[in-house]
Design a protein that fits this description.
Layout (H helix, E strand, L loop, with lengths): L1 H17 L1 H21 L12 E7 L4 H12 L3 E4 L1 E2 L2 E2 L2 H9 L5 E5 L3 H9 L9 E7 L5 H37 L6 H16 L5 E6 L12 H31 L1 H7 L4 H30 L14 H25 L3 H18 L11 H6 L4 H13 L5 H25 L4
Parallel strand pairs: 1-2, 1-5, 6-7
Antiparallel strand pairs: 3-4, 5-6
Helix pairs in contact: 2-12, 3-6, 6-7, 8-10, 8-11, 8-12, 8-14, 10-11, 11-14, 11-15, 14-15
């Protein structure tokens, strides 16, 4: 019996390894997934090789506390502080411009006279509502999972900067003022005042307010939530996975001979392909409508926010059509490259899952290291997801999403072009 088992095993292994494309995809898919996800999530884990989040910092303060806070931010290790861009010192206007252009997502602005505001608020009379403010300028598509730790770190570091900067100067100034007016403070009282001030600051009572805002020229429909990230993201995952159905459908028609009969009919080859692609394009659009309906109707029943379509829902239609064309072009490419259903299944799974991971479907791109964010631009998912979030989150209209639509049509043209070049009609 053992010999029979071994014989069957060897026979099946030979059959499996005859399909080299399918076997290659079987091994490549988890390897690519490990590579992409490990790099994408590198900054979310505390390893020594983790990449900190890039944060723009604009220091408009000329005092000691602003400088101390800048030093604290730079040495914190949790973020990569950028105070310059293209060799020039950052201004608030430049930082907001970079956020609007989606080159960065977060900027910390230390306002002018921040040190003076800290001193006045810290040593104000009891009951005073004076506060010092730090502006946190963010792209509204930035997740609360990212902003939460940034806010916490900023609050703690600003307290420490105030403790190290303003407290000694403020107390010394107070003692000098008393002495200049003929008064005298005993050494024991001096020590007690110093200790009380240190305890007050270290306990977090320093009146520092973190004011979250967005770039002045970025139109905002509403702040993002988990629904606005996941509904369009996973909808795109399904849209591009239909490419596998299209490729296998063409392969099956070749096997049973119906594709050859279509070619024999009095119609052009372009007509045949368009006839094959159109049903899948329609399915894509129906799929998008249904998934968005889930976000609008079903998810609120579970306590999640309702998916709002923004001020210009017509822009969603254009993005959806362009994304579907790219997905169908990819399906035709799979049909041109795959010789068996196993090859098509393995290749499509490998490519679609990798594109989804790179494009921000599984992990938002803004949490990825810089090189991963740039690498993600090779994925049509990244452009489509940005287009959807421009409408859903930022309140943009059709004109503003035209660059994303143009990129998606470019992907579609490349996929169609290579597919037609490699397509075997028999």
């Amino acid at each position: 019996m053992l010999r029979q088992i071994i014989s069957i095993t060897i026979k099946d292994l030979k059959i499996l390894f005859k399909d080299t494309g399918g076997i290659a995809a079987l091994f490549l898919m988890p390897a690519m997934f490990i590579f992409v996800m490990s790099n994408a999530l590198a900054g979310m884990f505390g390893s020594g090789n983790s990449s900190p989040l890039n944060v723009l910092v604009v220091n408009e303060d000329q005092g000691i506390v602003g400088a101390a806070l800048l030093d604290e931010l730079g040495s914190s290790g949790g973020m990569n502080v950028e105070t310059e861009w293209d060799g020039a010192i950052l201004t608030r206007a430049k930082a907001e411009e970079l956020i609007v252009a989606q080159k960065r997502s977060i900027a910390i602005v230390i306002p002018a006279n921040f040190s003076d505001a800290i001193q006045q608020a810290t040593f104000a009379q009891s009951g005073s509502t004076a506060r010092a403010r730090i502006d946190l300028v963010v792209d509204p598509a930035t997740s609360d999972q990212i902003l939460g730790p940034i806010k916490g770190a900023l609050a703690g570091l600003s307290q420490r900067a105030a403790l190290q900067g303003i407290m000694p100067q403020g107390i010394d100034a107070m003692f000098k003022a008393v002495a200049q007016n003929g008064g005298m403070i005993p050494d024991a009282m001096r020590q007690q005042i110093t200790e009380n001030a240190a305890q007050s600051l270290s306990a977090g009572s320093t009146p520092i307010e973190i004011n979250q805002t967005q770039p002045a020229n970025m139109k905002i429909e509403q702040l993002p939530n988990t629904v606005q990230q996941n509904v369009p993201g996973w909808t795109l995952f399904g849209v591009f996975f239909i490419s596998q159905m299209l490729a296998i459908s063409i392969l099956e028609e070749k096997k049973i001979g119906s594709f050859r009969r279509l070619l024999a009919a009095p119609m052009s080859r372009a007509t045949v392909l368009l006839g094959k692609l159109m049903p899948h394009l329609i399915i894509n659009l129906i799929q998008i409508v249904l998934m968005f309906a889930v976000g609008m109707v079903v998810l609120p029943l579970t306590g999640l926010p309702r998916l709002e379509l923004g001020a210009h829902p017509e822009a969603l239609i254009v993005v959806s059509i362009c994304a579907s064309l790219a997905a169908n072009g990819l399906g035709l490419l799979f049909a041109a490259l795959g010789k068996t259903a196993e090859q098509i299944g393995g290749l499509s799974s490998l490519v679609v899952v990798t594109m989804a991971a790179l494009g921000g479907v599984m992990v938002p791109r803004f949490v990825m290291p810089g090189f991963m964010q740039t690498l993600g631009l090779i994925s049509p998912h990244a452009w489509a997801l940005t287009g959807y979030q421009d409408v859903l989150v930022r309140g943009y209209g059709l004109v503003q999403v035209l660059p994303e639509c143009a990129a998606l049509l470019g992907f579609a043209a490349v996929f169609f072009g290579i597919a037609l070049w490699r397509f075997k009609w028999d």
